[in-house]
Write a structure and sequence with these properties.
With 392 residues, the protein is mainly α. The chain is 55% helix and 3% strand. It contains 17 helices and 3 strands. A 3-stranded antiparallel β-sheet has the order 1-2-3. β2 and β3 form a beta hairpin. α9 crosses α17. The structure holds carboxymethyl coenzyme *A. Carboxymethyl coenzyme *A binds next to loops.
Amino acid sequence: TGLVTVDPGFMNTASCESEITYIDGDAGILRYRGYPIEQLAEQSSFLEVAYLLTHGELPSSDALSGWIERIERHTHLHDNFKALIGAFPTNAHPMAVLSSAVSALPGYYPESVDPFDPETVELASVLLLAKAPTIAAYAHRRALGQEMIGPDRGKGYVGDFLRMAFQPNGTPYEVDPVMVKALDVLLLLHADHEQNCSTSTVRIVGSSHANLYASVSAGINALSGPLHGGANEAVLQMLTQIQASGGDATEFMTKVKNKEDGVRLMGFGHRVYKNYDPRAAIVKKAADEVLSKLGKRDEMLDIAMRLEEIALNDEYFIERKLYPNVDFYTGLLYKAMGFSTSMFTPLFAVGRMPGWIAQWREMMQDPATKIGRPRQIYTGPTSRDYVAAEQR
Ligand code: CMC
């Protein structure tokens, strides 16, 4: 093992070859299967992008409608599965509910766990995409102590997700098309991001030939951390605190730069982007437009924009190449839609689902795949002899 070198955080280790997502972090470029993220956000849709990521090509219009229809046919949850979610305390974090529910799925669909049968894998992929929003909507209602509302296929994937989350019990409810479009774009922007922490987790779990659900639920848990998907929740908490203490962005930034109590500007910085995250640029524009259109323009958006302006002109951030990442503005949109902060990371998970599935499928089909098993450099005591407890 003389050739083994330590690479903390895998800063310099490529764990695989992949045809799915291209990032040029210095230029701020992101492409799914070669298509620029800006074009997809403008012209495509979340489920079309989910097909693109998982199948490699954009679908024909027949293939697309077949794909959407198949997913929408499976959005319901069986009663005993609902009971499983209903057993959580109402103050359970929705990420705990989501990861547990996804872990439980293979128990309910044992016919879809063979990782090497293409039809089975397609079924598991469809089931995950179909069930994730329903589970997330139920987790949202659970936290509010509300009954679950079942899916209604005619409303569209994103529209019905919003309806399941927000329709008051027993009352008709029309989802705002502006919200539907905004959430569709947000989910699409999160759909894949190559070998980030959760996707690497999905791959390493799957490399042991664990089924797709087991691998994805591990990914959901990896996403929950504040340095990864949990950052969108942390951004809103940060903005709320700044607002509550008088809205002084400059004072907060001084704390960040002095690294007081390890405080970071959440939603800033990225392992790969050393330039403006192209997703953040799209979200910022959407937040500005959508909040104005809905008349929900928020003082916190102004605080966020002030923080950004200070950062982009400040030596600390410039020399470290710290720019807004995707999470900096997403929370403001989720909030305007009516989601509580604890739902922000589950929304990220619903969006990232196609990427986890696509990366897992690519890995399973790649003959070069081996079980993930990093090495280490041992730094503990050298050999020593056991001493009985009474002699220590
Ligand atoms: N605020 C203040 N300083 C920062 C920040 C920040 N947000 N991010 C990095 N730095 C500083 C860091 O202190 C270090 O400074 P120094 O050289 O003086 O020690 C330098 O920049 C390099 O940072 P690092 O932690 O070594 O960089 P990394 O590549 O290991 O971490 C990161 C990347 C995203 C974890 C980090 O930038 C961070 O913690 N950002 C805030 C959390 C966040 O927004 N995460 C979401 C990431 S994007 C979506 C996702 O993955 O879910």
